[in-house]
Structure formats: structure tokens, C-alpha cells
User: What shape does this take?
Amino acid sequence: MTLALLFPGQGSQAVGMGAALADAFASAREVFAEVDEALGQTLSTLMREGPEDQLTLTENAQPALMAVSVAAARALKAEFGVGVDRAAFVAGHSLGEYSALCAAGAISLADTARLLKLRGQAMQRAVPVGKGAMASLIGPKTDLALAEEAAKAGSEVGVCVVANDNNAGNIVISGDKAAVDRAIEKAKELGARAIPLNVSAPFHCPLMQPAADEMAAALASATIVAPVVPVVANVLARPESDPEVIRRLLVEQVTGRVRWRESMEWMAGEGGVTRFAEIGSGKVLTGMARRIAPDAESLSLNTPEELEAFAKGL
Assistant: This one.
């Protein structure tokens, strides 16, 4: 059994996330307390009690999702003796890459929390509200070629690119609002369904360059060491362990495509992964894993019961 640990991205947040872990495990409570202290805010209370509109803000959702993932990973080690080093690879979807790096020891918890708070704020600042948009192209006809063609049509009136190649049947485009609107029309002509996403900014597209510049400055002074297991990077869809390459990839990731389908295909193929475990809030990546790598086992780890059952199953 070759294991990969997956760390969820934005959209997986929910009021109450992490509460069961905090109630059950001192190791999880310590993570939430350290994140609160690093940020100078009671993020743990916001996660537990809401309000939802505040938790959903990018600058709060990003560190909050990381905190739950890392709390689950640390509880798995502290309570059940199963460390991240039992995995062959770790990978995270967008902000989840930071969670993966933190869980694998490459970046300290406090630094990761501060970097993600800044990342959320920088992404919000990069594009005025209402100027950008994102849309999910879905349906059996949706593949990368269709999404690229739709984005090309949108590019005639502004910036429009494929932002997230999640899996066949689920690809996200991002850019100027008028360009995304044009791409949605084209995608429908090509036989896809298109759903505008309720996001505050157009992530993973060239409009995010101001945010990438801010992250480059912040990451330049951050301490990054080699992770205990390789991280399959979003922009490469291949494993990486070199701290300086990781630093550069985290900057490129802000404007670059999340190559999730390719990352998963690589792990299930060349990487030899037979079991994917999503660690943290929600089950979005578990569902994607089942679609991309149906021959592998896929499960989610976000409750004390799930952590215990997983550890016993090893």
C-alpha cells in the first residue's frame, strides 16, 4: 500500500470545522492556539462559531483550512503514532499546498499561518471586486481541450485562462469578468455546463500578478527546509523537495494553473500510489480522487473516528 496525503483548498471551509478534533485531542488544540497567536486573532472561535460570511473571506478561509489539516495530521501522529512520513507523497490543492508543506515540516506552523493570511489579503487586493470572475465548466463533454477553447474565445475581450484542471468534467476558468462571460457562452456552445463561481477574486490567472509579487517578497524571507516527503507541486504536477525550488513554485502558483488532474494521475501512475487520504475539512478531493484514480482507495480524514480507523487500518 503506497499512501499519498491530500490537503484541501478553498471552498472546503464550513462553520464548525475542526471542533471535533479540538474537543478530542490536545495536539489539535495546540495547533489552533498557535495559529491564533501567530495571526493575533481568534480564528479558532470564528471556525467553531462563524459567522459564515467572515469565515468565507479569503484571508480567513486560507489559514483556517490549513489549521484544520495540520491539526488532523498532528493528532494522527500524537494520538495514533502515524506520521506524515508514512506517506510517499503529499499534495495540496492551491492553498492546500501550504498545508502539505507545513504538515511535512518544510515551513513552520506560525509562518504558514502568516503567509496564508497575507496570501488571502494580497489576492483580494490584486483585483477590484467585480472586475474579475471565475466559472466552473462541468459535464461529460468537459475536458481540458474544451476549456482551453472556451478560454481562448474569452481572451478576445480580456484575460481568460484555465485556472484549475480538477478532473475530467470539472475545469475552472478565471480572468476579467467580460472575458469569462464570453468564455461561458463558448463553453455552452461546445456542450459544457458553466456555473459562475461565488468568489471574491479571479484566482490562478495573470490578473493575480500583484499578489504574486507580494508573496515573492514575503516568501523571500521565510524559512523553508526540505519536506520529510516530496510535495507534488500544483504548477509542476511532479514531486519536489528542494527548498529553493519550492519557494519559487509557491510564487508561480498564485498566477499559475492548479494542475490537479495531472498531479493525481502522476501519483496513481508513476508514483505508484494505491491509497489517497484527504486530511482536513470536507471531502472535495476525495471525490476528485475517485474520479481520476478509480483503481486506488480514497478516503477522508477529518473526524477523530476517521483518524482512529485509518491508523488501525495501517
Q: What stands out?
A: The chain has a mean pLDDT of 97.
